[in-house]
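My hope is that you will study the protein record below before we discuss the fold together.
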Amino acid sequence: MTEVVTEPNIAATPAVTTAGTASPAAGGGGSSGLRPGGKKKKYNANNFAKSKNTTHGMTDFVLLTRNLSLLKRLLELPATDRDDFFIIEMVLLGLSVVMQITNGLLMFASAQKNLDDEEEKEEADDLNILSGILNFLVISVNIAISAFSGMS
């Protein structure tokens, strides 16, 4: 009797990184996607949304810190060293800080929503859209700040 030897299906095997976890390209997102016992993990939109909001919040915090630092430096300038754009810079920095705090509150409210409930998911989507618009405005204002700013 002849024994048939088949080659393993390489395409079905998740790619493994040097750390021993499945690569994101293999659909693992850094883990094999399997629970102990071989059951596939259920995608949890709530966890993804919370981690996305946390990461976004950290980057916003860095920009807020930079803007407050610039505002402090402008306020500490003696009147003789202030240039023609001083008022414009102050207004833009104040506007940016207010928009960033508002955006942070929107993101916090969005993160509190349960994405398994359809009504709350729609509210979270609306808050996300508002947050995206506010982010665009914050970026635009910060570009203008950079253009008018004589400081590095």
